[in-house]
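Forwarding these from the shared drive since the link keeps breaking.
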Amino acid sequence: MQLDNNTNNLAHDDNSRLIYIGNPQRTNEEYEFTGNKITTSKYTLINFLPKNLFIQFHRVAYIYFLAIAALNQLPPLAVFGRTVSLFPLLFVLTVTAIKDGYEDWRRHRSDRNENNKETLVLESGNFQLKRWKDIKVGEVVKIKADETIPCDMVLMWTSDPSGIAYIQTMNLDGESNLKTRYSRQETSLMPLGSVSGVIRCEQPNRNIYEFTANMELNGHKVSLSQSNIILRGCQVKNTEWVIGVVVYAGQETKAMLNSAVSPSKRSRLEQAMNTETIWLSVFLFVLCLVVAIGMCLWLMNHQKEIDTIPYYRKSYLIKGKFPGKPYKYYGIPMETFFAFLSSVIVFQIMIPISLYITMELVRLGQSYFMIEDKHMYDSSTNSRFQCRSLNINEDLGQIRYVFSDKTGTLTENKMEFRKASVFGKNYCNPPILDKENPDVTVDSDLMGLLHKGLNGNERICAHEFFLTLSACNTVIPIFNKKSSSIGDEIQEDLEAIEYQGESPDEQALVNAACAYKYILFERTSGHIALDVNGEKLRLDVLGLHEFDSVRKRMSVVIRFPNNEVKVLVKGADSSILSILKDDSDNNDLSIVTQNHLNEYSSEGLRTLVLASKDLTNEELEKWQLMYEDATTSLVDRSLKLRQTASFIECDLRLLGATGIEDKLQEGVPETIECLREAGIKVWVLTGDKQETAISIALSCKLLTTDMHQIVVNGSSESECRKLLLDAKARYEGESDDMALIIDGNSLVYILERELESELFDLATSCRVVLCCRVAPLQKAGIVDLIKKRTDDMTLAIGDGANDVSMIQMADVGIGICGQEGRQAVMASDFAMGQFKFLKRLLLVHGHWNYQRMGYLVLYNFYRNAVFVFMLFWYILCAAFSTTSALTDWSSVFYSVIYTSVPTIVVGILDKDLSHKTLLQYPKLYESGYRQESYNSFLFWMMMCDTIWQSLALFCVPKFAFSQSTIDIWSMGSLWTVSVVILVNIHLAMDIQRWVVYTHVSIWGSVVMTYACVVVLDSIPVFPNYGTIYELAKQPTYWLSIWLIIVVALLPRFIIKAMHRMFRPSDIQIAREAEILRKRRFFYGSSTVRRSSE
């Protein structure tokens, strides 16, 4: 979900939200704030029926069937019984409504449980229990440890004397790391009952990472930011209690504003169905037109006999059912028109209404087996595969492009400090693993340098280097009190320190500093405390400029005990090296450090540059004024903070650089190689440096050393154009050995100018594309480039918030449950624990889902069309009268009961190949994006087969009983049973994997049909009463059914046999090989048993 940007913050103070602290009555009298009651349900008892029907009728097919049912209510067009004609539509609507109603009932139950929870609220000077739904904006609320926060609150007091509270935001963003929140010192030092003031904050918005507000206490204005607010859904951890004032409640909380689902997507197969549905509509129109024209011609040829022909003579005979009552004969033109409309009603199931609900049930079953697949369970994170979108399962079998993030997706995102460049010297001696921090390498030379006397620039630089690692972050030290002891309190506490940070990079750097005896053991909003080689050092934090994507750096202003003030900075090399002080020492050091950075990047290490600056009193005073103004501003606060940071982040002294290793996930190289064998193109889109990205690409076998690397690093539109055109001209025809490497700066000129076509031509001709230093929107732009210019299916996979745009842009989005929270998971269609599962997801489940769903759609079209054509041939022989030989209930039950279950079972359980074969031969996946299971050719072949089978259904009984006196209802019973047996045997011919459920569904469907026919023929009021009992006695009846099956399916059997013999597909060859292996194994085992006996 895209977050609101700064423009959504307050533009004017008049638009601000005023909350009177501890005075909810005045707060809610002056402003209409919502209560804390939440509602996630869609319906109420009153609006359920109209609202649910309105949503369901967004499907055009439902409107079509409603119109058919309405036409059947008109007396001249009442082909079926008026009640019977409504049954199919009512059945589908009812099933969907029950499902929707059950889901909404669960939401109501969840809302009720949530709203009736209790928490402590300050009333009349005492904290009393109050239900969540009754909490109001302005009230003071107390939350105890491990309790969930009921609303968005500004933190006022905590049990910690320094005003710190630890919050777990897993329910909000999925991150398990503890976050720190601070109460302002102005409030934490005041007694609870003496605080009265006003909070002026921005209007409710979705941005969970920003909060802009001020608090006015006794005429003094205090700034409030994201670090001072705790949000609904979070939990208080490692803090006995916190007290805050409610600023947003109920539906206006940030959690509720972010509860919208990700954009819905439609599968490519479902979109392709629209074309075939239109053709079926054309068939329907043609059949109805033929019947209408035939009716017109027949009436014109028999015009003189109309008065004596039943249903057309002008009045009943004297001895008829209604003596003397006139018939409703409307004349030839109107009778022709009514014949057309009646034909539409009779042939209505040509458009299969049951297909929609069948597809939903099949997708649900497929999703169950994907979720339960033990091969896609990640034991390290205890996470199963997740299906967050149920309508694009089959798209997994047609992917042609995979767009992957690097950090946390291809790599583990578990950072390990490996190398350091300090004062121009590269420390990379054979590492010694520190016992306290087993993931940190300690260089003995660097350790010796740090603990010498404070003499020499190199020693001072190294000291500030590790001070920056310890202080310039938001990491919080947490002590494991269980391991503390009285005898050696400090040592035991230090050993028990665990660092919690929002970024794995920060945790790795702080752990590295700890290994080098720069131990961070206390952090508050106003100071930090370090243990430097056994000596305590307290540093006052005057201000913190957190990392942002514009500056790409972070800085902290520190006052030392000797009143010396420094600004310590860390950030990307492109951000730091350009703001260094311009002197000879810095320039020489910068060149050496840059060489070290290139070396680190070539080894696949993530790099950061560290620098510092001494602030004069004048600079400090000016910065403090700017900082106070920026932090208390309600207008463009972020912009002002960036300007304030830029004031001190200049003329810096370079300290050094770090190299952090982010290891590849298990199975990544094998997965990428397998995907490429399957014909899938893998593109990596990362924000890392080019050298780092290339190194990782080589490690994971995305790049090979023999590839021609086309590097596009342009700084202007003209330069980018020249690089693209030169590369196209130089490497034309060498796509197998080309790799395109392009940076984000070049993409700025390419994607926003008229260079997209050049990039597309070059990129699609390359075997590998690697995009470095790209912003989140540029990732989405690359995906959109392929979607707009090709018909190929795209898949995006990532683990962080910066991947959300890319995931939502792609046809299929997959989130990795990694170290960077769950933003990507929450925006995805599917989620899994590791990248390596992508191989099984696409090659196995994707292949199965596409093959099943493609056949399912074609079979449903065939099943209904053969029934319609059978009725059509009968009508042609019945004077175009649109009368039916089948009972109303038989026509309705055909697609709803008689033939629906086998379709669903086969759609869920059928497998053309085993998972071992699909993984062993990745090229078999190519059948998906070649659309071999569903295409126009298969559709037209199916229609030709359908017409032949319908002719067999009609003609065989007609000729078999031509000399008999069988009535039309007996013929209808024969056709009903025959068509059900025919379509089930047709389905059985195509089943690849027979299991117990398949046998039960196929043959049980035939038994069910016979049972229903017997029941319907046993009801005296029906015109077909007793027909099945007479038919079953005649050998001709059973012979006719047998002949229908043989005649109808013989051409299909011959064509399938010839095709498999002379033009087998890859799938058929692999299946035959699989069968032969099983037979050899079986007979081999039998031989071994016999020999042993």
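-- next protein --
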Amino acid sequence: MDRPPPAASLSPQEWEQLLDDFASSSPTSRRYRWLHLPLLDLAVSSLPRRDLPSHLKPLLLSLVDDHLLPPSPRSLPLLLNTLLSFPADHPLRDHLLTTVVSAFASALAAPVSRDHDAPPLAALADALLVAANRPNHAPDRAARALACDALRALDAALPGLLADALGHLYALAAAERSPAAQSYLLLLASAARHAVRLGRLASTASILAVAGPPTPFSVPAHLLSAPQHASAAPPSEVNLRDIRKVLALLMDRPQVLTPAAAMEMTSILAEIASAVLEWAPAIAAHIKVQFGGMAYSSSPMLLHSLLVLFVQFPDAFGAQDERTMASRLALAAREAHRPLPVRLLALHWLLGTGRFTNLVPGLARWFYPSIFDPLALKAKKLDCLAYVTAGIDGEKAAGGRDSEQLTGLLDDGLSCVSAFRWLPARSTETGVAFRALHKVFVGTAPHSTDDTRCGGAGELLNSTIFLHVQAILVEMASDHRGLVPVISEFTNRLLACNLHQWAGEQLLRTLDERLLPRLEPGYQLASYYPLFEKIAQNETVPQLRLIELLTKQMVSLTKDHGPDTELKSWSQGSKVVGICRVMLKHHHSSHIFLPLSHLLVLTIESFPDLEVRDHARICLRMLSCVPGKKLRHLMGVGDQPSGVSPSLPGSLFDIPSQRPAQDSKSMTDLASYIHLERIVPLVVKQSWALTLPNFSVQSRPSGYILSIQEVSSTPSEQEKPTGPTIERIGYTQETLRVMDAKGAETLQILRRYFACVPDYLHSSGLKIRIPCTFRFDSEPFKHVWGSDLPVSGSDGADELPALYAVVIAFSSSAQFGKIPSCHVPFILGEPPGSGMDIIPVDNQNREESSYCASVVIELEPREPSPGLIDVSVAANTENCQVLSGSLKPITVGIEDMFMKASVPPDTPKEGVAMYYQDLFHALWEACDSSSNIGRETFLLGRGKGSAAINGTRSVKLMEVTPKVLIGAVERYLASFLVSVAGDSLVTILRRNGVIKNIVWEASVSDASVGADALVPYSPDSNLQLQLIDDDDIRVGSGRYGSENKRDMGCMQVMIFLPPRYHLLFSMEVGCASTLVRIRTDHWPCLAYVDEYLEALIS
């Protein structure tokens, strides 16, 4: 397939933009606009251009190296042609050569296509061989060395590429005497290694045979076909001789190799020599002679190279060589001028190589950490000292050496991290010190391959190092109380291991014998409680000393008790009793009965805390009444409850038994006899809720705004909230300034009002409360839970079932925020036929009942919409059973969201009614869709969040008589009524006396009021009630001749919907119908208002 014609070249400015996009650390979207172009072809073809600035050309090559490799195979000819046509003396030729070779090495793999990939590969190798085939040519030795390195890279990517030219490479390497000889030797070594891997040594033809000049080069046949497995036949005599010649040449001049080149060379030599070592064993001795001197080098690379030869040819190096190498590694770890990784690597080589294991004890004096050594190096050196200590102690246990050397090694080693004795227990120095002590234990009794205990445990328990470590731990615990938790954890680690459990038990016995007699009772003894609990848990440790010390402690706590130590006394007394419970759980009661009973009796009689005395009384009762085996089983049943701090003894909270789980069916039927019911029934039985998708601002059409959008003023860097992102209004953020007097007054009222509305995004919002009652039926409860108590009438309260510690949890998918749970400590079941059913009364209160508990559900709505609250209950029964399950959900209606608007604190009490009326008119104006106030933003409470108003209007015609409407308003909307206008309406509402503290927009002294009112009024006479039929409250021509069908008056209702929305009603009341004009700044609530108004008058 022919290559497509090249795209137009990019200008220098475009190249600079492209390079900037690729070098940017921003997301890769900036690079996508360039990826449709053939960037590799454009970059390579732009290199010879003279109009391209010289500083861009190396950047283009770096772009190819970093982002455009591996290339497509069809781009290889262009790369090759560019390289061959590039001037030889150009400063970028070496960089271009490296790029082209990298492209070929990354794009090609065996087998190579004979028609497409083989020709450019052969041409590139031919050009490189031509450049390298001039040995000792001084002016271009750097170019020749680069050509050799390029050939080696190609040979590594395509193994065996130069296998047929091995003879030429041998001649070139032998003839080269300039500093470029290193590149020639490495090229020869690489080609020889691949020849060995391909099985060329088994051939009868010489691998060094030369049939002609090295150029023109042709790709070997094995790279043009599928790879085949190399034969395992022994090498032929001629090739064995040739490979020895190659090895001799490679080892002849190690002095011309850099440390990095020497490390690579030794790796290749080890592989080639290992392949023919069986037929030429003298090669190993030759390698030792040539490279053994690297042991005296200061380069870590050369030391690593020699270690590779040590491992590969163990028979070639003797004991003296091993001692020399071990000394060099130990010395390298001590040299402070070396980098930390090199010093750690030297110790790792010394301990990780099995050749130097028996030499490490003789180098112990070099492993002492210096005070200024890094902590990581100290830890590694302490590992070496632990290894030496364990080895010497093993010889002593077998009958060998003095014990003073052992203790000296460990003590002198730990002195470098002696700060751990006064540093916090969590310090790194403490961890290093105890890690070294654990290494001593593990080294003294190493882990075996099978899961059995150490066979020589008896001898090691009496070994010098084990006794010395025990003495160190006892001194630490006695002198440094802060280390007690670390010692306890150290003991836990030993006890948890099957192989070292005996060491942990012996350590606990030693602490019991040597540490406990040193301790004095008092408040500071609490630091040792973790160790005391470990001693109490172990069955092999006698408990007499511990019980005596705890008895003294309880006496001391009783004497020192006072008003300021009540909490300390309770805490430490509880822990002591908890340790006693641990003893009951893990020891035979016959062994500890007498001393433990004395301790518990002393606690019961004299300890000042009541709770501790009760716990001690329970323990004493179990100790004296329950047999030992049953007692231990009883104490072992049960888990630590959730929420209890693990620092206290876990057994202190063990429950004595666990009742079997109840049938799941009984849990699902809880709602049939356990009830949580609303006290105030809903006007509208809501069975649906409107859910709107939460679209982002960016996805909305232009100019679209939510009803009240959440806007945030820009805070300072310190005040930027980390919570949810606050939505911004869709219009420009520049506020429209209203210049007329009416608009300015409206804005002033709204700003003053919104400053009182809390911002729930930055603080707690307003909460609504739903009062409920909680009760359960006795008869079905007894039937399900198997209570043996008879259920009688209401007078037999002692015989009724009861629930304890009732927790009622709530959850909801609606936006009600986190709903706190409610707790009922105790409640009796409701007896059958008691007549105590829940009946709502006029004042919306329940009849008092001893079988009902009041529960208040607190919601913090994020959206004023109805929803359901899922209810779950958990409680304890009298027989220690636990019941849990779901109850019937609680319905939340739109009327539950109704609240009165906030009043600024500086408003006088007599001015509240007028303030509400002004606020109603301001909100009514702001919710008008034609108003410009919707462009304004109003700061909320605390000045962080803001709100913008975008109102919606609606109209509702209710065909209802004035009597029904007035009754519904007085019952459900009285507290939200702002003002009443109209003589007739004012007279009726004032007569009823339900609505107070509002603005009455009719003059009560006007004579016309009494003339047209349903109930005539005169200040000089009493009210005369006129008998009218219930359905005769109508305004017709006979009674109100001057009024039309809706001119009785107007009622204005203002309702606040949390968190910061409003619902406004203007009710124009007539004789046969009422027109309700509705305005709101939260249009979704209109979906529920229509049903609410219908239910209001039904």
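The first strand starts at residue 674 and ends at 678. The longest helix spans residues 375-397.

- D.
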